[in-house]
Amino acid sequence: MIWDERQQRRLTFLTNLMHLAASTIAAIYKERWQIELLFKALKQHLKIKTFVGTSENAVQVQIWIALIAMVLLKFLQLKSTWPWSLSNLAALLRFNLLTYRDLWTWLNAPFERRSIAPGPSQGTLFAT
């Protein structure tokens, strides 16, 4: 048994690892819960339903990509002056992925109707 200071209650953990102290078991459960929360956030914000590949390497690559995407989203959220929630930022970025906008201007004022004219059009591939 261990005492939870935050919620003022006693917690009981069942285990067959009798050589570990109750505080150690509680710390293990707490760390595991943090991992569960991380995967829940990845699934919720990045809409990951299933893994594309199922080998160990494929799953690791997909997890790393999701973690990098989450770090980039969090960075954009922190740099923006607009009060974004992470889920709204992810959804609106996904919606505006193929539009031509200045990212930093959009992050700070997402609902302003300011368009940027694209640069000069690309020339022809073959000279005539």
Sum up the structure in keywords.
mainly alpha, 51% helix, 128 residues, two-stranded antiparallel sheet, elongated, single chain, 5% strand, 2 strands
N to C succession of SSEs: EEHHHH
The total beta strand count reads 2
- Sheet having the most strands: 2 strands, antiparallel
Q: Supply the number of helical segments.
A: 4
Instruction: Pick out the low-confidence regions.
Output: none
Explain what you see.
With 128 residues, the chain is mainly alpha-helical. The protein folds into two domains: 1-46, no CATH class; 49-115, no CATH class. The protein is built from four helices and two strands, in the order ββαααα. Strands 1-2 form a two-stranded antiparallel sheet.
How would you concisely characterize the structure shown here?
It contains four helices and two strands. The chain is mostly helical and 128 residues long. The chain folds into two domains: 1-46, no CATH class; 49-115, no CATH class.
